[in-house]
Amino acid sequence: MSNPIGPACREPINKSTNKRINKSTNQQINKSKTLEASSTYLFYFWRLMAACILYQIRSIPNYLAFVRGVMVQQRFIRNRLNPDLMRFSETNDGTLSQQDMQKISRYYGLGVPAILGEMFCLLRGSPMTETERVAATYLGAITGIFDDFFDSWRIPPERINQFIHKPETIVPANSNEKLFLDFYVNKALANIPDRLKFLEASQRVFEAQIESGKQTGNQHIDQSEIEEITFRKGGVSLIFYRMAFGNHLSDAEHDALYSAGALLQLGNDIFDVYKDLQAGVRTLPTTMQSIHELRMVFEKRTRSTFDLFEALPYPKRNIRNALNILQVGVSRCYVCLHQLEQLQKKTHGKFIPTAYTRKELICDMEKPVNLLRSVKYHLIICP
Fold first, then answer.
1. What is the predicted pLDDT for the residue at 249?
2. Count of C-beta atoms within a 10 Å radius of residue 103
3. How far apart are CA 222 and CA 214, in angstroms?
4. Cα dihedral angle (184, 95, 87, 185), rounded to 10 degrees?
5. In a domain, 14, yes or no
6. DSSP H stretches of helix in the chain
7. At which of 149, 169, 191 does a domain end?
8. Three-class SS of residue 357?
9. Are 272 and 332 in contact (CB under 8 A)?
């Protein structure tokens, strides 16, 4: 069809007029693109916010249960654990630091029963008993001290093994060892439902700790061996804590919890890149040059863990409630992986931990943007 106006009806256009028209047109196009991008951003932003609100509403019962569990454990710490710590602080010969006390009361003594213990109880569908709480709390309390036997005090392995299997033959050398023996023998062991199986689990933790020494030695160790050591250490540790609980541990649940422990250990290493780098500890995050490959390892372990949980012969509601606790930790790890991926771009696509600052390597989960990302990843994991 011909132009209804026709060429004869057009005004002649000179070069300067043409430039002004082109400039105006480009500005309009750029403005249109900016508005389009802004609208797209706002669309996805509000979509994410709506999902977050719905997620929070859906999670209120689980959240309240979690808060209630933490409060119960904090009360137990005030009434039972803190008086014991005070007793040892009064006779402390200097081998128990303030940091040791804080790790016992604010970290391990709180987290093992209130997080891991609650996950075990949600899975079986019954609340934690007082006996189980005592055992889980004091097993958590000695965790940091036990690690320091290897890492800080360099106690000979034979003596550490004696602490585990023949504590009655040990003459404690200092306040640190006295606290360990008292908490281990009089509090934890005294409330363990199956002592024989617990000692077997303890032996596996001991062996995993010995093996993890390869990560700091001068001997050659490849990434496949680092991965194997990491997963074994995390797996046997979670089974160790599970021994504080009285319900039967089936082979299927053992495998699911072992895999969850492996996943949590890898997640811990992802957050501890800076600390492990300073200590000379070779982990997957400090040795792998591609965060994308590290993410693939983490995702594979996450999928296999969830599959093992979903196949357990427990009510589906119990499984989802237990996984909800695990998913909180997993989603935080994805936030940290995202941060490390951004750092990798600074060094031409190759992850070089020594090239980054402490601030760049440490993932601050108190930042609002990181909390928002954590919710986003949680939604992806559990739609």
1. 98
2. 19
3. 10
4. 10
5. no
6. 15-76, 82-90, 98-102, 109-111, 118-124, 130-141, 143-151, 157-165, 175-181, 195-212, 223-242, 251-271, 273-279, 284-287, 291-310, 316-346, 358-361, 368-381
7. 191
8. coil
9. no
Same domain membership, residue 375 and residue 241 = yes
Any idea which residue has 């200097």 for tokens?
94
CA angle 333-335-340, nearest 5°? Answer: 95
User: pLDDT tens for residues 16-33?
Assistant: 444 444 444 445 445 454
Residue spans of alpha helices (H) in 118-156: 118-124, 130-141, 143-151
Question: Nearest-CA neighbor of 373 among 346, 334, 345?
Answer: 334
Q: What pLDDT, on a 0 to 100 scale, did the predictor assign at position 374?
A: 87
* Residues 371 and 264 placed together within one structural domain of the fold: yes
Greater model confidence, 21 or 263: 263
* Domains identified in the chain, total number: 2
Q: Using one digit for the tens of pLDDT, what is the confidence trace for 58-103?
A: 556 666 777 888 999 999 999 999 999 999 999 999 999 999 999 9
**Identity of residue 322:** A
Residue 182 lies in a domain: yes
Give the C-alpha separation, 49 to 376, whole Å: 9
Full residue range of the structural domain in which residue 97 is found: 36-191
Residues 326 and 253 in one domain: yes
Any long-range contacts for 23-28 (C-beta under 8 Å, 24+ apart)?
none
Task: Tell me: do 69 and 187 sit in the same domain.
Answer: yes
Residue 205 lies in a domain: no
Per-residue model confidence as pLDDT tens digits over 282-296: 999 999 999 999 999
> Same domain for 228 and 186?
no
One domain, residues 64 and 178: yes
Phi-psi region of 356 (alpha: psi -120 to 50; beta: other; left: phi over 0): beta
Radius of gyration of the chain (CA): 28
Instruction: Flag whether the pTM goes above 0.90.
Output: no
- The answer to whether residue 212 sits within a structural domain is no
Residue 171 in tokens? 């003459």
Same domain, 143 and 60: yes
Contact status, residue 273 vs residue 288, Cβ threshold 8 Å: no
Burial class (CB in 10 A: 0-12, 13-18, 19+), 316: exposed
Among 88, 84, 69, smallest CA distance to 132 is for 69
Is the same domain home to 186 and 264? no
